[in-house]
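Below sits the subject:

***
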Amino acid sequence: MGHRIAVLRPCGTDPKVSNLTQIGTPMEIYDTPANVFTAGFMGTPKMNLLKAKLTDDGHDVMFYGVRMPVSDAFRAAAQKHRGRDVILGIRPEHVGAAHEIDWKSDTSVTGAVEILEPLGHEVIVHFQVQGETVSGRLRSHTALPAPGEPITLQVRTEAMHLFDPTTEQRLA
C-alpha cells in the first residue's frame, strides 16, 4: 500500500459530482474516515454503521436501546447536533468479549449470534441486535456460541465515529 492514498467512489456520469472521498495515509483514513463510504470501505471486516441518536444533552448516543457515552473526539460535535439522528460507526475490533478485551468498557451490547467466521487467530462474530447486524471480534477458539444463541459483547466507546445521516460526512 502507498504512503498516501486516495479513496474514490463510483458517482455515475455527472461531471459536477466528485468521486474523491478522502486523501491521506492508510492509517489516517482508517482511523478518521471523512464519511460513511470511506468508513465502510477501509478495513476488513468493514465498520459497523448503525442508526443512532444523540441524547438531548449530547452526552450520550443511543442505538437499539443501548446508551453509550460520546467519546472525547466527538464531544463538541455532539453538542452541536444534540437530539439528532446520527450514524454510529464502530469497528468490529472494538466490540469484544469482556474476558478478552484490553480496554475499559462500561457499555455492552447483546444480540443473537447469526454467523461465526473463524479466521485462525480470531473469530468474527456477526450478531443481530433488534434486527440489525453488528460484527465483533472474539480471540478465543474454545466455547464459541452457536448460531441463534445470545451473546453479550463490550464496546470500546472511545473508538466510536459519528456521521451525519443526511450528508454522510463525519461530524466535526
Notes: The longest helix spans residues 26-31. The mean pLDDT is 93. The chain has three helices and twelve strands.
